[in-house]
């Protein structure tokens, strides 16, 4: 998060030159579509993709914005397909709702790289890169569980502030969180969803803090709405608990390093996957494989691990914050 | 003033207002087409003309609402073209508009001073406003209306008083009144005249518009007649000019301004039987009958509950007790009433009866279009033809039934409403103030229509605030006071004075919530 | 007074005689009259559409040079307009009838979600369509009952329904996107009949049915009366309350149909689907000349309203405008469209309507 | 007819005698009159609030047992209501004046985003507040001008503005959440004066100012006239168009204030902030007794409407209800609240208003 967009993007420039794939190859037109960015994470996805594409002289980047909902994105995709790019990189509004669009593109002979939100139909994509929503919940739950266990809290009051509650990814995150807590014998005392924005995060957190007068730990799914959550915590003057964030924004990582707020850790769900997707799209377009793998082609599925950033390891993640 | 209110003196004052060749066109309509008018200080100058003659347009030009296209207006010796209503008011011309121009959710005082509020730095001076309003109201003879009560809570006559109070709240040299008596009952009209006489005695000029010719005789000094936006006669003496001449100047033809003779109705079985009908707080124990081909009139003061009674008979309001039977069938809902052949022309034409933007024929068939339909599909061709025939029958002008009702004059709009029920094959017609705001010519035609209906066996129950109308039209007269039917008589066995005596007794609009 | 014998003496009680107009002529009028009137009234919007297409041609001449692409693009625009178009037809009825329905998006969501639960899917295609439509109509009936008999303001009643129905949809779906495994449903979106996409045909049928219902049936006549002057309608013997209930049920029915169409397009349904369709549908209806206060409106106008919106979106897509620029431009186009439409309408009424009365 | 001499014959021109009321009493009336009337009218909503609190006590007695918690909770509810409450005051004026403003959320977003750009922040606290308010008022003026002079329907004009202003906000912010580095702004949300949160005080001041403006100034009375009977207002010499422009500017002003309040609460602003505030504000106003068609409404009622909403949210939070259940219940509560409110209002009018006049 920054007031100045484009300043921090996470791209792989590969200065070392040791990678044979870095050499320019045949020209690849990459079509790209992501939902309207009204959120730091989605904005970072688009910015990363754009920046990564610019790093390759042999890539032409064509992005269509996908409007407000799945229907709009479907419409955008049909115009994109009509322009016959070599590869399409797609962050769908909803994987299931855009499954048919994926199939259509694949049928038209355009490999589709699905970012983050899986198509149910395996024929609808060439490559699936996704973050691990369930794993993110697990990581947050494990961290909280271990910390509380170490403190010897027996019946902890744990709060949770998810993002938009009707999204499947939110459900997966919460499921992972619940499961991890259950292994410690803990459960969530109160759960107030926000909408991935700072102002809704502030509102949800205010309500949550009021409903749980003494809290031990709090997981906020998203660092962007976390700005508001932290503001609410400060406004309520509450310090008795610790908080775990989600996604891994720059501001959150800075706060963890500074260690002057309740935010002690964040579990990643990095928009760097967009940069990787562009790199791999180029390889697919050029019919190349990943050099470290034995296989001649890019694999079908890649799931990024969700990592836990704490004060100890924050420094090395600092450049990956969005 | 202590000046005794006797015969108004001959207009001796100087000319305050002079209009010459005033023209005002609306897109497609030449509403004013060369109007001449001369008003002297201290006189009551009556404006006569048929519906749509341009009277309201003329006074709106004076009030700064419309701007004249051509012609000259001289006010107090100077050329006058008010840019806005405010400018006209500042120049000393106050107007009481025909359509009630009040805001329901403002108080009486706020309405009276709307647009020229007493304020200090934008803040209302409520106490002095209330005081001044109280003063004006008592001058109007209605000190019992609280300046703080909401206009919404006042009956129509009360609202008219507030409109008048608004006009008096200006320091006016000329007060224009556009049909102020239309919603007033008899004693209220007397009261209005008293006020007008007080005003003229102070040298204030009054322009008075009304469709009731007998009022002109009573209050007017001089008369100007408009026809199709043109002055056809100017400065006739109000008391001496024969009615016949006024009417012919207005309409361009001669109309016998009397009620058509009634054939002595035969004895007939009762069509409508209302038995001890009651609605708490509105009317109680109303029992009456109407026979086929009979016209029954209800006289009473504004607010005596006549409209409520009619609406309850029609099923539009739920009775607390009592029954209504039509041809032996009990009526409790509008659906049943319409089905069994009852129709009603309600009091407020525009808000209660008409779809103003829809064509005439659709308004006429509003209660019967299902009858022309085949399996739910409408047959507009048939509807149109039927409407055209009814329009001929009613002498509707214009005959073009595709025209939007909004463009019709008041009298013709009323005919559309009556026509609606003729098309529906109605056996019993309830008419609430059928001639309100309707001009002389149209009025005579409506009377004829009502008689023709009765002659065809339709029963008519009629409410009117004009006692002569009730007496002239009806076979039988009922008198209503404070929610009770207190008297019944054959129309030729009772005279106007008796009815008025019965009707009065109590004054209206007492006990307003403070 | 005029002599009574000169008047055509109609028997008061007998039904009116059949019109003298020849049958052929009246049949020709049947189609002409209001249809041409709708077109005339919407000349402004047609103009806006033409301008949008011209901008499209000017900015992407190479695409518009390709006839197949143009044909496909027309169908894309129409397909994109199909579900919202169906909803707008229902909305237009509700608004003409003096109401408003803020719950259409939520009704689509609950109808879509309910018809794609595993248990509903087990009843097959018919079961799914039946469910969507019944759910839509029932929710509409509840809306209507709250408004008619509970005397709630339509805005509030349908707002409450919007919130509640989305909640129920989330509950039913467990907040999961429910995939439709029914290939018949899924294929609706890809089927073409005589080269025309099925969804476009559905839209055309619904619009045509809506037009006939509004302009040629007693139901439509009542709708105009109820919205134009409810008191007059009531005093003319129309059951205003019941009619209002039917209007909301009709809107619900349209939502049920739209739910199936959207489900087929997305091969899935979820609680957040059709988000903010209410605003789009209301805006389309109003831009199409429907009076928000009721009593006046046209189905054809509403269709044009929808088409303007989906043409705008299409224009943005082929020019790859970013969302923020899209939104800014869209706001401007909406204003411009209404101004153009208004201008036409005003000058026309001046030419045609305001002939001297007397 | 009636004897004229029995009527009070006051001298026509001379000022009427002063009323017998003592000065003290009338001053008491200044506050009482309409204030008590607002309260009486809103008895239903007060009842709803009481019921909600009772449910809260019944379900979480241990929380309500703690006096400090209860006090904090009251302030939490009020704080949560503060920004939307300020917006609702402006919205109530617009609706009473016969309009509607769908762009309030978007105005907040653009005002918030504009006032938190790095360059604006460099002008310090005053610069930020000034920017937010000016942006709000200017956008409101544009709304008003489109409606008054462009003759656009308010629904469409403000809908277009909603779309466009969000787009512009996204453009300005580069779709990033803009963090406020201004500690004065940020501290507004945590400051308390005499134990009362600053935001609550701002709400109270705005509500009080709104009440005075509506009930005690020419502007307010003219607003009622413009909304209740625009033709009468025009005939009374009120510049209806200009007044309409001012009403939207007032709404924009309230949005500007709310933008600062929200920015302070979230210590940041972004293009998606205050999402759907328009619906909440309109709903609160209507539930509070404001007539959607204009001409009638109370500020106090609108405040109660907002409080009902934020009390509902609070009740859900302390009982940890899930979103979908929340939504279902919320829909029901809205309906119930209006029904209760209506019941009170109706029975009261029956008691007071419908007495026979004669
Ligand atoms: N604003 C307007 N736009 C167009 N035509 C108008 C307008 N106002 C009045 N007219 C037309 O001007 C003519 C004169 O109308 P006006 O209201 O002055 O008649 P009037 O004499 O007051 O009739 P009534 O006795 O029914 O009140 C009518 O044909 C009317 O339709
Ligand atoms: N909306 C209303 N609210 C309160 N009181 C009303 C309302 N409508 C009518 N009333 C009261 O009901 C009674 C009957 O009124 P109404 O004016 O209908 O009588 P009416 O004899 O038909 O008089 P009019 O000649 O005005 O039609 C009066 O006391 C009136 O004040
Ligand atoms: Mg007139
Ligand atoms: Mg009456």
From TrEMBL, chain B:
Taxonomy, superkingdom: Bacteria
Alphabetical list of SUPFAM superfamilies matching this protein: P-loop containing nucleoside triphosphate hydrolases (SSF52540)
All residue ranges annotated as the ABC transporter domain in the record: 17-253, 267-507
Residues spanning the membrane: none
Keyword flag Translocase: no
GO molecular function, one term: ATP binding
Claim: Lipoprotein is one of the keywords in the record: no
Keywords per UniProt: ATP-binding, Nucleotide-binding, Repeat, Transport
Protein's recorded name: Putative ABC transporter ATP-binding protein
Taxonomic classification: Bacteria, Bacillati, Actinomycetota, Actinomycetes, Micromonosporales
UniProtKB/TrEMBL annotation, chains C, D:
Recorded topology in the membrane: Multi-pass membrane protein
Transmembrane helix among keywords: yes
Subcellular location: Cell membrane
Predominant localisation class: membrane
Pfam families assigned: BPD_transp_2 (PF02653)
Gene Ontology molecular function, alphabetical: transmembrane transporter activity
Key word Transmembrane helix present: yes
InterPro entries given in the database record: ABC_transp_permease
Entry GO CC: plasma membrane
Region annotated Disordered, chain positions: 1-25
TM spans (from-to): 42-61, 81-114, 126-146, 152-172, 193-214, 245-264, 299-318
Alphabetized UniProt keyword annotations: Cell membrane, Membrane, Transmembrane, Transmembrane helix
Protein name from the UniProt record: ABC transporter permease
Source organism (scientific name): Actinoplanes friuliensis DSM 7358
């Amino acid at each position: 998060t920054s007031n100045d967009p484009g300043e921090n993007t996470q791209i792989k420039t590969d200065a070392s030159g040791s990678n044979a794939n870095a050499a320019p190859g045949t020209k690849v037109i990459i079509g790209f579509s992501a939902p309207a960015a009204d959120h730091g994470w989605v904005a970072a996805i688009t910015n990363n993709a754009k920046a990564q594409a610019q790093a390759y002289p042999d890539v032409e980047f064509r992005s269509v914005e996908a409007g407000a909902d799945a229907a709009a994105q479907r419409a955008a995709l049909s115009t994109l397909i009509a322009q016959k790019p070599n590869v399409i990189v797609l962050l769908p509004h909803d994987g299931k709702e855009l499954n048919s669009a994926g199939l259509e593109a694949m049928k038209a002979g355009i490999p589709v790289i699905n970012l983050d939100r899986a198509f149910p139909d395996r024929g609808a994509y060439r490559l699936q890169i996704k973050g691990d929503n369930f794993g993110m919940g697990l990581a947050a739950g494990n961290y909280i569980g271990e910390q509380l266990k170490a403190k010897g809290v027996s019946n902890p009051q744990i709060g949770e502030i998810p993002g938009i509650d009707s999204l499947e990814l939110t459900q997966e995150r919460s499921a992972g969180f619940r499961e991890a807590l259950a292994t410690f014998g803990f459960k969530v005392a109160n759960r107030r969803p926000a909408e991935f924005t700072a102002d809704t995060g502030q509102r949800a957190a205010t309500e949550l803090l009021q409903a749980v007068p003494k809290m031990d730990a709090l997981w906020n799914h998203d660092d962007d709405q976390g700005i508001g959550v932290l503001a609410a915590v400060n406004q309520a003057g509450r310090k008795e608990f610790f908080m775990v964030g989600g996604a891994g924004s720059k501001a959150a990582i800075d706060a963890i390093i500074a260690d002057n707020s309740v935010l002690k850790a964040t579990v990643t769900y990095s928009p760097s996957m967009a940069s990787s997707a562009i790199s791999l799209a180029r390889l697919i377009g050029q019919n190349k494989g990943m050099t470290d793998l034995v296989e001649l082609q890019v694999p079908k599925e890649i799931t990024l691990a969700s990592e836990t950033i704490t004060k100890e390891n924050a420094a090395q993640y600092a450049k990956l914050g969005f | 003033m202590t000046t005794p209110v006797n015969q108004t003196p001959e207009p001796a004052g100087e000319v305050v207002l002079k209009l010459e060749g005033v023209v005002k066109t609306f897109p497609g309509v030449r509403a004013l087409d060369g109007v001449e008018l001369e008003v002297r200080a201290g006189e009551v100058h009556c404006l006569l003309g048929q519906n749509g003659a341009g009277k309201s347009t003329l006074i709106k030009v004076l009030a700064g609402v419309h701007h004249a296209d051509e012609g000259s207006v001289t006010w107090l010796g100077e050329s006058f073209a008010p840019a806005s209503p405010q400018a006209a008011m500042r120049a000393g011309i106050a107007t009481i508009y025909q359509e009630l121009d009040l805001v329901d959710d403002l108080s009486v005082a706020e309405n009276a001073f709307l647009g020229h509020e007493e304020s200090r730095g934008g803040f209302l001076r409520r106490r002095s406003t209330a005081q001044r309003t109280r003063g004006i109201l008592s001058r109007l003879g209605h000190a019992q209306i609280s300046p703080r009560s909401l206009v919404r809570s006042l009956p129509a006559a009360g609202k008219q008083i507030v409109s008048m109070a608004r006009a008096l709240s200006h320091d006016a040299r000329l007060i224009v009144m556009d049909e102020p008596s239309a919603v007033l009952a008899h004693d209220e009209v007397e009261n209005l005249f008293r006020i007008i006489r007080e005003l003229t005695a102070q040298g204030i000029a009054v322009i008075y518009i009304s469709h009731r010719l007998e009022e002109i005789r009573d209050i007017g000094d001089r008369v100007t007649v408009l026809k199709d936006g043109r002055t056809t006669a100017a400065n006739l003496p109000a008391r001496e000019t024969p009615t016949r001449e006024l009417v012919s100047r207005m309409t361009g033809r001669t109309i016998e301004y009397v009620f058509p003779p009634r054939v002595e109705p035969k004895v007939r079985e009762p069509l409508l039987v209302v038995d001890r009908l009651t609605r708490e707080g509105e009317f109680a124990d109303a029992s009456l009958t109407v026979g086929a081909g009979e016209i029954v009139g209800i006289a009473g003061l504004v607010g005596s509950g006549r409209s409520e009674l009619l609406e309850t008979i029609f099923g539009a309001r739920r009775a607390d007790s009592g029954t209504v039977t039509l041809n032996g069938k009990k009526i409790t809902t509008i659906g049943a009433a319409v089905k069994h052949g009852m129709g009603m022309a309600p009091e407020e034409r525009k808000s209660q009866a008409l779809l103003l933007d829809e064509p005439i024929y659709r308004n006429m068939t509003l209660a019967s279009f299902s009858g022309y339909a085949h399996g739910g599909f409408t047959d507009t061709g048939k509807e149109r033809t039927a409407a055209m025939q009814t329009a001929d029958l009613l002498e509707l002008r214009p005959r073009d039934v595709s025209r939007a009702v909004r463009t019709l004059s008041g009298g013709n709009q009323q005919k559309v409403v009556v026509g609606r029920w003729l098309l529906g094959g109605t056996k019993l017609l309830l008419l609430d103030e059928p001639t309100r705001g309707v001009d002389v010519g149209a009025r005579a035609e409506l009377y004829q229509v009502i008689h023709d209906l009765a002659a065809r066996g339709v029963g008519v129950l009629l409410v009117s605030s004009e006692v002569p109308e009730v007496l002239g039209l009806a076979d039988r007269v009922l008198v209503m006071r404070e929610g009770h039917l207190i008297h019944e008589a054959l129309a030729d066995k009772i005279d106007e004075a008796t009815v008025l005596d019965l009707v009065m007794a109590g004054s209206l609009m007492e006990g307003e919530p403070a | 007074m005029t002599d009574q014998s000169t008047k055509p003496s109609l028997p008061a009680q007998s039904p009116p005689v059949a019109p003298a107009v020849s049958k052929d002529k009246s049949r020709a009028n049947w189609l002409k009259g209001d249809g041409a009137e709708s077109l005339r009234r919407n000349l402004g919007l047609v103009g806006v559409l033409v301008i949008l297409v011209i901008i499209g041609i000017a900015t992407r001449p190479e695409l518009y040079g390709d006839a197949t692409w143009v044909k496909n693009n027309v169908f894309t625009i129409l397909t994109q307009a199909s579900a919202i178009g169906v909803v707008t037809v229902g909305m237009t009825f509700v608004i003409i009838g003096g109401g408003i329905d803020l719950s259409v998006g939520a009704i689509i969501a609950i109808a879509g979600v309910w018809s794609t639960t595993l248990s509903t899917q087990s009843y097959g295609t018919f079961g799914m369509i039946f469910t969507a439509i019944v759910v839509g109509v029932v929710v509409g009936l509840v809306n209507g009952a709250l408004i008619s008999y509970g005397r709630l303001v339509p805005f509030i009643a349908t707002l409450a329904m919007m919130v509640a129905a989305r909640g129920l949809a989330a509950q039913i779906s467990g907040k999961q996107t429910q995939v439709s495994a029914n290939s018949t449903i899924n294929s609706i979106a890809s089927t073409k009949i005589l080269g025309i996409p099925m969804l476009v045909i559905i839209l055309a049928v619904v619009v045509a049915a809506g037009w006939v219902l509004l302009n040629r049936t007693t139901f439509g006549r009542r709708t105009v009366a109820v919205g134009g002057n409810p008191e007059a309608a009531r005093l003319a013997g129309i059951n205003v309350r019941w009619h209002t209930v039917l209007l909301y049920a009709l809107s619900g029915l349209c939502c049920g149909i739209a739910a199936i169409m959207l489900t087929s397009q997305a091969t899935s349904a979820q609680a957040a689907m059709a988000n903010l369709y209410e605003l789009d549908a209301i805006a389309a209806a109003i831009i199409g000349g429907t009076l928000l206060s009721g009593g006046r409106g046209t189905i054809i106008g509403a269709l044009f309203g929808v088409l303007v919106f989906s043409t705008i979106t299409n224009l943005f897509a082929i020019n790859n405008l970013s969302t923020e620029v899209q939104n800014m431009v869209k706001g401007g186009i909406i204003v411009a469209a209404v101004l153009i439409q208004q201008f036409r309408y005003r000058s026309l009424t001046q030419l045609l309507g305001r002939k001297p009365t007397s």
